[in-house]
Amino acid sequence: xxxxxxxxxxxxxxxxxxxxxxxxxPLLSSISPLLLQIRADTGMSFQASAxxxxxxxxxxxxxxxxxxxxxxxxxxxxxxxLGLCMIVAACLxxxxxxxxxxxxxxALLGGAGIALIQxxxxxxxxxxxxxxxxxxxGVYSASLMAGGGLAALVSPQVAGHFSHWQAGLGMWLLPxxxxxxxxxxxxxxxxxxxxxxxxxxxxxxxxxxxxxxYFGLVNCGYMSMVAWLPAYYLQMGWSATQSGSLLAFMxxxxxxxxxxxxxxAHRSSDRRPLLAISLGAQAxxxxxxxxxxxxxxxxxxxxxxxxxxxxxxxxxxxxxxxxRKPAEAGQLAGFVQGAGFLLNAVSPWMTxxxxxxxxxxxxxxxVLVVAVVSMLVLTRIFSPASNSRGV
Length: 391
Fold this sequence. Notes:
Blueprint: H1 5-22, H2 26-29, H3 35-42, H4 46-65, H5 67-74, H6 76-94, H7 100-128, H8 133-162, H9 165-170, H10 173-185, H11 206-234, H12 240-265, H13 272-291, H14 297-320, H15 326-358, H16 362-378, H17 384-388
């Protein structure tokens, strides 16, 4: 049974959304499984190497805050293309990296590219998939997380095959090139043109700041897991491939949650029960990492992955619940992601600092437990009635 042109276009748009998402986390998650080799060659400390995760996240925050201004200058199509070009350049540069300073520079360059794409995607989804926003956000979130897990699994294998950690980091220019080609040849129908008159109302809205705090804290564990989970188990004698596969295993449950929870959220306008389940899963997982790290590591990692995957997708849906128009969605999502990612950036750096200070990652995991439980208490205020009032 053949597909008509309309059906083919729909399939192409969903495929393009997935391919974009797959390219937004390898720059971060490919580092940690190779951290021992990178530190041995570059002499970077734990705290310094934390910047390889924190710097891209800082870029995500700053560029997200400027997202609509950048769209006003570049347009959606050129903005996403520029972001992909920056990721390609950063990965290519990593193939020849031998110093910590070079890795820092690539983290900034690639992080800015990731951030530019992330700032433009929410409004694109709100417009292009307007009758399936929750599903599209779930697919986008799942592909984003799958890219991170795939990088954690494949990077150490590629590095081992070529006997160079640079190969494990630089190989991700290939899927970025594929995404760039697809984006340019198969643009979304009705792709937004440059816009003028960007409002800054979110900056003065208490609700917008509350959403940004919530988005930042419910998702900050992901950055710490990406940066330090493999390193945590490397110190317990696991190999780079084993520790990387544990992060990839976590990603499986992130993807499941990112697909299932938005589908369940579509059945009700109240996001609080699903958010409570997701935050509770995170808390139990972090406590397990502290108390029984070698007893049932895959159970704790599965719970953390499920909680993080669900929280990322559900928190984006929560933001869009406060918007009625695509332009409003882009403005609010840009602000929330911007401020939230700046908060996220503290997490891997704080974890590295606590590791240097205490000689263990355990204190950092307890900090994540406190953050998650605090957000569990805050969740109760996001009732459907209050969300519908907007910001």
